[in-house]
Amino acid sequence: MNKAFKLGVTALVAVSFGGLAVTSADAATWHKGLPKFVRNKKFRTKYENKQKDYTWAKGTKHTFTIKHTQAGVTVAQKVKYQKKGKTYLIKGGYPDRATLKMHAIYYRVQKVSNKKIKAGEGKHGKLLTMHKIKHFPRVNGQIWN
């Protein structure tokens, strides 16, 4: 009886310590590529002012871009994403042409519906509402691609 009692107490202690070990899913995991609702799609805002300025977003499997009509474009390469609540944080790199070093760039994307997203540059700030489009419109006779 004494052996059975000691064995039972030992098993109970082992199970209780094993039950206290907390295994949590790592919410801060970075996933390669882009979320499916952005991958291989194009989005555009409505007119931002009377000059018909747009903001476009384009995602592929390994790149993501947000471009304004009157500004240059920065293409984030080798992207990965992390889900934070309802928003996806996208991190990529772009090469500096002078030093050939990769610099980090961040974008945020939130799915509103199947045809609408909210997207913005940087880790904080305003998100722009964008609608899904099939092809890019012409700006001054040229198609932005």
Keywords:
eight-stranded antiparallel β-barrel; mainly beta; 145 residues; two-stranded antiparallel ribbon; single chain
Description:
With 145 residues, the protein is mainly β. Helices cover 13% and strands 46% of the residues. The chain contains 1 helix and 11 strands; from the N terminus they run H-E-E-E-E-E-E-E-E-E-E-E. The strands form 2 sheets. The protein has an 8-stranded antiparallel barrel. Strands 10-11 form a two-stranded antiparallel ribbon. Strand 10 and strand 11 form a beta hairpin.
Class by SSE composition? mainly beta
Strand order, biggest sheet? 2-3-4-5-6-7-8-9
Mean pLDDT, nearest integer?
81
Number of helices: 1
Number of strands: 11
Strand content: over 45%
Question: What distance lies between the first and last C-alpha atoms, to the nearest angstrom?
Answer: 81 Å
Global morphology: elongated
- Main β-sheet description: 8 strands, antiparallel, barrel
The portion of residues assigned to helices is 10-25%
Radius of gyration: 24 Å
Write the layout of secondary structure elements.
Elements: H1 2-20, E1 31-32, E2 41-44, E3 55-59, E4 63-68, E5 73-84, E6 87-95, E7 102-113, E8 116-121, E9 128-133, E10 138-139, E11 142-143
Antiparallel strand pairs: 1-5, 2-3, 2-9, 3-4, 4-5, 5-6, 6-7, 7-8, 8-9, 10-11
